[in-house]
Amino acid sequence: MNRILEKEHFSEKVVKLVVEAPMIARARKPGHFVIVIPNEKGERIPLTIADADINKGTITLVIQAIGPSTTEICAKQPGEYLHDVVGPLGRATDIRNYGTVVCCGGGVGVAPLLPILRAMKAAGNKVISILAARTKDLIILEEQVRESSDEVIIMTDDGSYGNKGLVTNGLEEVINREKVDLVCTIGPAIMMKFVSLLTARYDVPTICSLNTIMVDGTGMCGACRVTVGGKMRFVCVDGPEFDAHQVDFDEMLMRLRSY
Amino acid sequence: MDNSDTISPRDAAWREQLRKSHTAKERMAIPRVKMTELDPAYRVTCNDEVNQGLSEGQAILEATRCLDCPDPQCVTGCPVGINIPGFIKNIEREDFTEAAAVLKETSALPAVCGRVCPQERQCESKCIYNKTKRPPVAIGYLERFAADFAREAARNASSPLPSHDPMAAPTDFRSDADDSTLPARAAANGIKIAVVGSGPASLSFAGDMARKGYSVHVFEALHEIGGVLKYGIPEFRLPNEIVDAEIEQLRAAGVEFTVDCVIGKTLSYDDLLNQGFKGVFVASGAGLPRFMGIPGENYISVMSSNEYLTRVNLMGAGRPGWATPVIRGKKVAVIGGGNTAMDSCRTARRMGADEVYIVYRRSETEMPARVEEVRHAKEEGVKFLTLHNPIEYLADDNGRVRAMRLQQMELGEPDASGRRSPVPVEGAVTEVEVDEVIVSVGVSPNPLIPDSIDGLDVTRRGTLVVNDDTLQTTIPTIFAGGDIVRGGATVILAMGDGRRAAAAMDRKLSAKE
User: How far apart are CA B77 and CA B209, in angstroms?
Assistant: First the structure.
């Protein structure tokens, strides 16, 4: 049982929770995720870790209410509990000084991207962050992203904030403007697919963090399998980050419609 | 057999007397007991345990069949060498508690093994009755009977019932002293031992070490204790309450459990050392499900048996009020011929599938599943497509599987495993309509531990390298057993590993070697 200490609404359907999980707070690194079971009869939901505080023994989760379980998590109040939180799971991001790193986050994908771009900045990279969402209200964590970015570009589908257009429009401009050594992208699978198609055209190395269906999250069930470079890989233990240019996004998008 | 160290030796006066009470001819005239089973038409509508167990009368009569051989071969067929005639003769003399105590001398989980061991390949295959073309003594049924009797007796003796509140103080649990079938416990020695995983290997290791006086802490990655006994083996074959009773007994013996803790992730091996653990037993079990690498295997509704069974058994999918979804196909194919395949096809029937196929590339003779599971599956209407191998899955426009293409096989020469290897019959390919496929062709060892501890050597197959006798890994403080070492074996072998590792670790830590 993990107690919820703080809650903040980023938008109607997007909630930030600060949750007691001292061992996970200590062990987690950028790129890791956790499995959350909301209540006794709940399902196991993979959620990426947005932040952690070792001293307070907390981790921060950002959740978008899209199904019954995520809606239930979002409805929880401070003082209430998540029945189970297990992690950190997956492999951590390979943080190095690459040179110029562009971090592309879509929707709630910005939350797990935050610790990665922070670490990239701390490792000496020039960090350009592109935050994309449908509309202004859905742009999250902008201030925190600015603190660790050399430049921030905002893209909204409807032009209500920043530039009107998709994340790929912003990214292409940057690539045409300067040398980019690495692109990190986290967001909806369809967004990551188009980021990957774009950067493949320009031959810019790209890592994506995949959000497949999982059950145990520890390498046991195979629900999260994806095809990467023609081989079967398991997102929970081999990922969640992969070379985006090798990922079969169409197959992954199909499998996301399983249930 | 030298059984001088057992609590019911063959030369005990009561046993000698018991042997004389019936002639061998009288004993051999008794027909083998028939297990009472739920009716197939009823049992596919629920999760109730199929085998109903023996009555006292049935058990005593079946125990009377056993000839109490001077050189009992059944014991050699048992992977952990249970004193089989010793416990059976106690049943015959109606001392069921003592029978359970004899079992507990050797087996940490007799109620489990009595249900899931492949007895027809182990103890029962060596029974002297086979030589006279008679069915062997029903050793598995009797083991289950004695273990169930002891559990019920302990439950009835304890009042109030054991608490299931994980936050409750250990004093709330039934004290160890209430269970007279447990071997005596040594004084606490204060040495902390960590156990990774909570399946059969871990539970037996934990039980032994606790009885030797160690302070044992079990770390489980999932949210439930029991490993494969919970997520894998279905309720209709092994009710969770049986497993929970074993776990309660361990708690009563002072074993501590932490769920939701992945060693190598949540806590590192160094964290364990820093917390003062002097030994670690790794039994993290089977991991990655194997797939066949054929076209269409990633279509929707094609999944591993691990995923299917975990959803249903561990996550409660299909039960009202439980959130985890599961695909409920009407025409389901299960690929494979092992126990997990049988569990999957029988689960599919219970989840409402009209037609369920077992697709197996060899013939029924080569099937690794327990004979009883195969029979139960057939009784429940599962169709067996033996000598067939899937070569491709076909999907509809949405990527949902709609059919499988099967290659017909025939048996050729024996392969390395001694089984005749299947070879394709050229041109004999059929297409069978299915809307769900469960792939049950084995697992690879879980990579989490080998990946996260430097200095642990692994084999080419990804299993941990251990000393064959002591089960010590290439890091002296770490021992290992079960599927992480064997790659995929049985509950009884895993349990035996736990016991051997406990003995070896005890010898090392108490500087006896």
Answer: 26
